[in-house]
Design goal:
Order of helices and strands: EHHEHEEHEHEHHH
Structural class: alpha/beta
Radius of gyration: 16 Å
Largest sheet: 6 strands, parallel
Oligomer: single chain
Shape: globular
Number of strands: 6
Number of helices: 8
Strand content: 15-25%
């Protein structure tokens, strides 16, 4: 029996740092970011394939959810990570079967850009979710739209930070639930029903 091809959902998320990006940190809701990442992983992974670029604040949240899942579902995940950060990889990275390491291009901006480029070229995404974050979430939204113009985009404005900016400034199709609905599991089940 042929294995079913799973739809791929992209996650772009991070928790802003107060000392680095006050314009993102000041509007961020850290609890909402954590809750929504865990809810997305719990909703998507059993039925679709979740892909994200490694971030030290996000990868542990997904690992926490995955550890409670069956082994079969653990193959429904792909973590992309740039070798530029190899000396500081969080231990959580090694809990995942499918890690795609991209080359170190000598500096952080080039290395991250090339990792994102490879992520968007190698995967046919049907949807993307943007949670919290800083400049990188905005960059990933713009790049995702270039590579996957017909995919569903969900900037979760309730998490504040970059996701709120994306919702306010770039998202054409506004859904007010993205601003004030904190029942994330139910929200993702509804919004992604046709994609997972």
């Amino acid at each position: 029996m042929a294995k079913k091809t799973l739809n791929k959902i992209f996650l772009s998320a991070s928790i802003p740092y107060a000392d680095r990006s006050p314009q993102f940190y000041d509007t961020s809701d850290v609890l909402a970011i954590r809750d929504s990442v865990r809810a997305l992983a719990a909703v998507v992974i059993p039925k679709a394939h979740l892909v994200w670029g490694g971030h030290p604040a996000i990868t542990p949240l997904i690992r926490h959810v995955v550890e409670r899942m069956t082994d079969e579902w653990k193959s429904h995940i792909t973590l992309y990570q740039s070798s530029h950060f190899e000396k500081s990889f969080p231990e959580d990275n090694f809990a995942f079967e499918n890690i795609q390491l991209t080359p170190n291009y000598g500096d952080m901006p080039s290395s991250i850009f090339q990792m994102r480029k490879r992520m968007f070229e190698e995967n046919n995404f049907t949807a993307a979710v943007f949670i919290g974050g800083m400049e990188g979430v905005i960059d990933e939204y713009k790049m995702f739209r270039e590579y996957h113009p017909n995919a569903l985009t969900i900037p979760l404005a309730s998490t504040g930070a970059a996701a709120k900016i994306v919702y306010d400034e770039f998202q054409n199709n506004k859904d007010e639930r993205l601003i004030g609905d904190y029942a994330y599991m139910a929200l993702f089940r509804d919004l992604l029903a046709d994609f997972i």
